[in-house]
Amino acid sequence: MAKILQPDLCVIGGGSGGLTVAAAALSLGASVVLVERDKMGGDCLNYGCVPSKSLIASAKRAQYMRTATKLGIAAEDPKINFGRVNEHVHGVIADIAPHDSVERFEGLGATVLQGEAKFTDPKTVMVGDQAIKARRFVIATGSRPMSPPIPGLSDVDYYTNETIFDLTRKPQHLIIVGGGPIGMEMAQAHRRLGSDVTVLEMQAPLAKDDPELTNIALKQIRREGVDIRQGVKVTEVAPKAKNIVVTIEKENGETEEITGSHLLLAAGRKPNIEALDLEKAKVNFDGRGIKVNKGLKTSNKRVYAIGDVAGGLQFTHVAGYHGGLVVRNALYRLPIKNDATIIPWATYTDPEIANVGLTEADARQKYGDKFKVLRWSFAENDRARAEHVEEGLLKVITTPSGKILGAGAVGHNAGELINIYALAVANKMKIGAFTKMVAPYPTQFEIAKRIAVEFYKDKVDHPALKFLLQLNRMLG
Ligand SMILES: Cc1cc2nc3c(=O)[nH]c(=O)nc-3n(C[C@H](O)[C@H](O)[C@H](O)COP(=O)(O)OP(=O)(O)OC[C@H]3O[C@@H](n4cnc5c(N)ncnc54)[C@H](O)[C@@H]3O)c2cc1C
């Protein structure tokens, strides 16, 4: 057996969360062992954010070509070379990969072990025959696609996010099980790249977001030809010649068969915990993931869990946020608090949907009717008009005194617009702060300024203001 490694930190998983912890700890002079069993960069780089956003970029460009007429350019039916699209997607991954590579992390001073980590007791992890007894362990092993218990699934070739980006030929008819963010992003992208697409969703599509916002995006996605079936249960799948037949049961009990060329499962995620032998580490977990307290510590005080495996919001920026917190506590014992209420998220459909803090429904549950909802349409924004991206809505939720509780947007670049509200929510800012700033004209950001002015609209009826105006008139 090799010499036992005794670093300050042993990070298990070289994805978004694990790499954040490793890079930050190394920059602060800590010793780090980083363990990765598959590809460095994890889900986000190899099978998630990066390939999906790259595919969406190709799809968006194709759509712009189709819809150029309203800007005075002859619209064209784009000639899509799916193989080339695939090369673009993998080119972007390859471009980013060096930043997440073994070489980079070894260069920063980490000991990188390529293998599967397993606990053998509460203080020891083994990777092959290498033992690691770290001062602290960080589990950042992420999640993987869940296969729903659909009869016949094992008889057909199906895709998940781990395989769909390997397609070099356009799927003729892609059937997607699951209408969450991943399912809807993939649905619109493939439709724009020329596939027929059917989405099968048991409840409502994009159900975690505000329906007033999602309805605007879903209307557009349907308009582009994606067949979204909601309230349907997939009861069976079966192969038929070169195709796949999916049987669905509708809310009224009727059944229907849908035939497609490809099947994509986007129906939830499972935490990667099985290989870790968590019982031996005395780390508690359930089906959603590893149980952590507000300080991201597990039931074993030497062990933290972060990112997707920690069972909360599953986003790259959450894994990164967790990583930053854990380094402070693990290296310096500084107090930390994982605050999920400040986390924004975006769904990269076109129009995009983004949110931070409380939605209108959350606010109603928490404050009854003691809150304000401000709305501003993108159609009122000159930049949106100039670019013909008028379909969109910003909603801001405040307390009666103007503290920003949350914001949600649907529209062109809504994911960018939400950043300023993420700043506002994290810093408990009031809407008045937006009235003090000047936004360059014409930018989409002016919407944020206009909506703030809306907050004060009913205040012009205040008797004191009316009196002041009257007084000034009298004074001449
Ligand atoms: C299609 C898709 C699109 C997405 N788009 C976005 C997006 O636009 N924005 C966003 O914020 N999020 C997005 N996500 C979510 C994002 O990818 C994840 O939230 C993020 O990758 C989680 O980071 P993590 O560090 O927790 O796990 P990961 O990045 O998955 O890293 C975990 C790593 O641990 C390794 N591992 C597991 N078990 C072991 C073991 N026992 N020993 C050693 N190594 C192990 C794995 O191989 C993996 O590399 C998307 C996800 C998908 C599937």
Structural account:
It is a single chain. The chain has 476 residues and is of the alpha/beta class. It folds into three domains: 9-145 and 270-340, FAD/NAD(P)-binding domain (3-Layer(bba) Sandwich); 153-267, FAD/NAD(P)-binding domain (3-Layer(bba) Sandwich), CATH 3.50.50; 351-461, FAD/NAD-linked reductase, C-terminal dimerisation domain (Enolase-like, domain 1), CATH 3.30.390.30. The chain is built from 15 helices and 24 strands. The protein has a five-stranded parallel sheet, covered by helices on one side. A five-stranded antiparallel sheet has the order 20-21-24-23-22, with helices on both faces. It has a four-stranded parallel sheet with strand order 11-10-9-15, covered by helices on one side. Strand 17 (285-286) and strand 18 form a beta hairpin. Helix 1 runs parallel beside helix 9 (316-332). The longest helix is centred in the N-terminal third of the chain and has 18 residues, at 49-66. It is globular and about 95 Å long. The termini are far apart. Residues 12-18, 35-38, 42-44, 48-49, 52-53, 116-117, 140-142, 161, 182, 272, 275-276, 307-309, 314-317, 319, 348 line the site of flavin-adenine dinucleotide (FAD).
